[in-house]
Amino acid sequence: MSLEESYKILRKGAEVLALQNAQTKNRVLKIVKEALDKNRQKILAENAKDVKRARDAGVKDSLVDRLSLDDKKINGILESMDVVIAQTDPIGEEVAGWKTPNGLCIRQVRVPIGVVGIIYESRPNVTVDAFCLAYKSGNSILLRGSSSAYASNRAIVDVIKEALDKAEGGVPDAIELVETKEGDHSDVDAILNAVGKIDVVLPRGGKKLIQNVVQNARVPVIETGSGVCHLYVDESADLEMAVTIAENAKIQRPGVCNAIECILVNRKVAEDFLERLVERFAGRVTFHADPEALTILKEAALREAIAQNAEEGSSGKNPATKILAAREEDFGNEYLDYECCVKIVDDVNEAISYINAHNTKHSESIITQDMKNARLFQSKVDAACVYVNASTRFTDGGEFGFGAELGISTQKLHARGPMGIKALTTTKYLIEGEGQIR
After folding, report:
1. 11-41: per-residue pLDDT in tens?
2. Cα(33)–Cα(39) distance, rounded to whole angstroms?
3. 432: Cα within 13 Å, side-chain hemisphere
């Protein structure tokens, strides 16, 4: 099917869906959820093909993790759908209302955006999340996934469309998947120029994809950012808390956008903290360090190696910690892997200045017992999500109670942070009079 045909189908679907009430949409979404559950083995079989191709191509493990599905992940997808279904339908919500002196009754109400396009890499879970959020908010959606996940996405969309076709009140025209071919991005260019046919486009993926969409789109864009996230360890920090949060934020899933890529540490606690960091990370992460941190890390790694060898029978228990001198391009880099920058700073103000100069406006965190510094950090750091004494890994629609998410918006207009169903709505004014003229 051509893109032009898809646009027409989706517009028709959006017009039908916009008139449906919450009860109908929720009932249909439950039927889709049941169909996905029933067909999980088919979906997993197709996903296994995508994963094998990725591994054969030498894709790094942290990125294969984003591509792969299993029963646990599918259970999570289905649970997210339950949360979305249970949420209040935003369509028709009266945002504001008033009566003018001449008697006009004005109401501002929430309505669907219309036809939404999402261009994304890997992550077949996004296929379900984006559909579910779009459908619940009364929008149709064009999915343009990556060629690396095409078999998975095709299987998922086939199940969804079949369920929509069979369900009473279902709108199968509300979802279309673009057939993707490796190395061919002409369809992306066409989508970005589909003025009047696509109402908004969301990019979700790496820096290159996002920049391409933002710089070349003629249709409106909600920018979702790559994640160059930082953790700042303040001089008053509980260092055991800090190293535990650092471990979670860097190592739990390094290939996701809310994982940290740089650790900043106050000079007054640098030696103590970095000693603990080397011990806790146990050779699992490559450090790219500034000159001062480089010296401290190497000395800490040497002491850790000696201590390991001194323990009977434990020699070689952990791999050696790899510590490299940071290059200028390392600061502000999104590794999406078991790599991390380390930089020593004088105080919270230097940390804030550094972060604002190198981040992608995604998620930042300070570990501190000084609430004055915490509030300063939260007020001055320019990011969608700013944490105190918590991991950046919580920047997620599910963790925020939205169920699913379209992505993390790093811009400041319309939507910012994790985007749930309200991010796919706009408003219109409904005005009622009794013959008034101006």
Report:
1. 999 999 999 999 999 999 999 999 999 999 9
2. 10
3. 5
Closest CA to 420 of 28, 90, 21, 18: 90
Give the model confidence (pLDDT) of 147-173 as tens digits.
Answer: 999 999 999 999 999 999 999 999 999
**Sign of the alpha-carbon torsion through 264, 266, 271, 275:** negative
> Do residues 128 and 36 lie in contact, with contact meaning Cβ atoms separated by under 8 Å?
yes
Average pLDDT over residues 32-54: 97
Looking up tokens 């700073």, which residue turns up? Answer: 345
> Does residue 203 contact residue 223 with C-beta atoms inside 8 Å?
yes
pTM, rounded to two decimals: 0.85
Q: Tokens standing for 5? A: 């045909």
Looking at this protein, which amino acid is placed at residue 187?
D
Q: Return the minimum-mean-pLDDT range out of 29-43, 51-65, 254-268, 286-300.
A: 51-65
